[in-house]
Specification:
With 120 residues, the chain is an all-alpha fold. 84% of the residues lie in helices and 0% in strands. It contains five helices and no strands.
Protein backbone atom coordinates (compact mmCIF):
# COMPACT_ATOMS: atom_id res chain seq x y z
CA UNK A 1 0.00 0.00 0.00
CA UNK A 2 1.34 3.38 -1.00
CA UNK A 3 0.91 6.02 1.66
CA UNK A 4 -0.81 9.14 0.39
CA UNK A 5 0.13 12.58 1.71
CA UNK A 6 -3.14 13.02 3.65
CA UNK A 7 -2.74 9.61 5.28
CA UNK A 8 0.94 10.27 5.94
CA UNK A 9 0.04 13.43 7.82
CA UNK A 10 -2.37 11.50 10.04
CA UNK A 11 0.18 8.74 10.62
CA UNK A 12 2.91 11.26 11.40
CA UNK A 13 0.65 13.06 13.88
CA UNK A 14 -0.26 9.83 15.69
CA UNK A 15 3.38 8.73 15.81
CA UNK A 16 4.81 12.00 17.10
CA UNK A 17 2.17 12.28 19.83
CA UNK A 18 2.68 8.69 20.92
CA UNK A 19 6.45 9.09 20.95
CA UNK A 20 6.22 12.03 23.35
CA UNK A 21 3.75 10.25 25.60
CA UNK A 22 5.82 7.05 25.70
CA UNK A 23 9.01 8.97 26.53
CA UNK A 24 7.22 10.63 29.44
CA UNK A 25 5.83 7.31 30.60
CA UNK A 26 9.22 5.58 30.51
CA UNK A 27 10.72 8.32 32.66
CA UNK A 28 7.86 8.24 35.16
CA UNK A 29 8.25 4.51 35.81
CA UNK A 30 11.77 5.25 37.02
CA UNK A 31 10.46 7.67 39.65
CA UNK A 32 8.28 5.15 41.49
CA UNK A 33 11.07 3.55 43.57
CA UNK A 34 12.03 6.97 44.95
CA UNK A 35 8.50 7.72 46.20
CA UNK A 36 7.34 7.34 49.78
CA UNK A 37 5.83 3.94 50.54
CA UNK A 38 2.32 5.34 50.81
CA UNK A 39 2.63 7.06 47.41
CA UNK A 40 3.88 4.07 45.42
CA UNK A 41 0.62 2.15 44.99
CA UNK A 42 -1.25 5.18 43.66
CA UNK A 43 1.57 6.15 41.32
CA UNK A 44 1.81 2.59 40.05
CA UNK A 45 -1.95 2.41 39.38
CA UNK A 46 -1.92 5.78 37.62
CA UNK A 47 1.00 4.82 35.35
CA UNK A 48 -0.63 1.49 34.50
CA UNK A 49 -3.82 3.36 33.58
CA UNK A 50 -1.84 5.75 31.39
CA UNK A 51 -0.06 2.81 29.75
CA UNK A 52 -3.41 1.14 29.06
CA UNK A 53 -4.64 4.36 27.45
CA UNK A 54 -1.51 4.62 25.30
CA UNK A 55 -1.87 0.98 24.21
CA UNK A 56 -5.49 1.71 23.25
CA UNK A 57 -4.37 4.83 21.36
CA UNK A 58 -1.76 2.74 19.54
CA UNK A 59 -4.37 0.15 18.58
CA UNK A 60 -6.66 2.93 17.37
CA UNK A 61 -3.83 4.43 15.33
CA UNK A 62 -3.17 1.01 13.79
CA UNK A 63 -6.83 0.67 12.88
CA UNK A 64 -7.15 4.21 11.58
CA UNK A 65 -3.93 4.29 9.54
CA UNK A 66 -3.49 0.63 8.62
CA UNK A 67 0.09 0.77 9.90
CA UNK A 68 0.98 -2.44 11.70
CA UNK A 69 3.79 -0.59 13.50
CA UNK A 70 1.24 0.96 15.86
CA UNK A 71 -0.10 -2.51 16.67
CA UNK A 72 3.43 -3.70 17.44
CA UNK A 73 3.87 -0.77 19.83
CA UNK A 74 0.58 -1.60 21.55
CA UNK A 75 1.77 -5.18 22.10
CA UNK A 76 4.94 -3.87 23.74
CA UNK A 77 2.91 -1.54 25.93
CA UNK A 78 0.84 -4.49 27.16
CA UNK A 79 4.14 -6.08 28.22
CA UNK A 80 4.99 -2.85 30.06
CA UNK A 81 1.76 -3.20 32.00
CA UNK A 82 2.67 -6.73 33.08
CA UNK A 83 6.11 -5.59 34.24
CA UNK A 84 4.65 -2.67 36.18
CA UNK A 85 2.04 -4.89 37.80
CA UNK A 86 4.88 -7.06 39.12
CA UNK A 87 6.75 -3.97 40.42
CA UNK A 88 9.55 -4.26 37.85
CA UNK A 89 9.62 -0.54 37.18
CA UNK A 90 13.12 -0.37 35.69
CA UNK A 91 12.26 -3.11 33.22
CA UNK A 92 8.90 -1.45 32.52
CA UNK A 93 10.75 1.75 31.65
CA UNK A 94 13.15 -0.09 29.33
CA UNK A 95 10.30 -1.96 27.67
CA UNK A 96 8.39 1.29 27.17
CA UNK A 97 11.46 2.56 25.35
CA UNK A 98 11.23 -0.47 23.07
CA UNK A 99 7.75 0.67 22.03
CA UNK A 100 9.46 3.67 20.48
CA UNK A 101 11.04 1.55 17.73
CA UNK A 102 7.88 0.71 15.77
CA UNK A 103 6.42 4.15 16.48
CA UNK A 104 9.57 5.78 15.11
CA UNK A 105 9.36 3.55 12.05
CA UNK A 106 5.78 4.72 11.43
CA UNK A 107 6.86 8.34 11.85
CA UNK A 108 9.82 7.92 9.48
CA UNK A 109 7.67 6.27 6.83
CA UNK A 110 5.17 9.12 7.03
CA UNK A 111 7.92 11.73 7.08
CA UNK A 112 9.36 10.36 3.83
CA UNK A 113 6.03 10.80 2.07
CA UNK A 114 5.44 14.25 3.51
CA UNK A 115 8.96 15.32 2.62
CA UNK A 116 8.61 14.04 -0.93
CA UNK A 117 5.52 16.25 -1.32
CA UNK A 118 7.34 19.26 0.11
CA UNK A 119 5.18 19.29 3.22
CA UNK A 120 8.04 18.85 5.70
Amino acid sequence: MTLQAKDALTQYHFAERLKLDIMMLAHQFLTIPSLKKEEKAGAKRMLINITEALAADSKAAASFTGSEEFGKAADVLYEVISLAESNQFGLASEKAGEAMVPITTAAATAWEVLHSHGLL
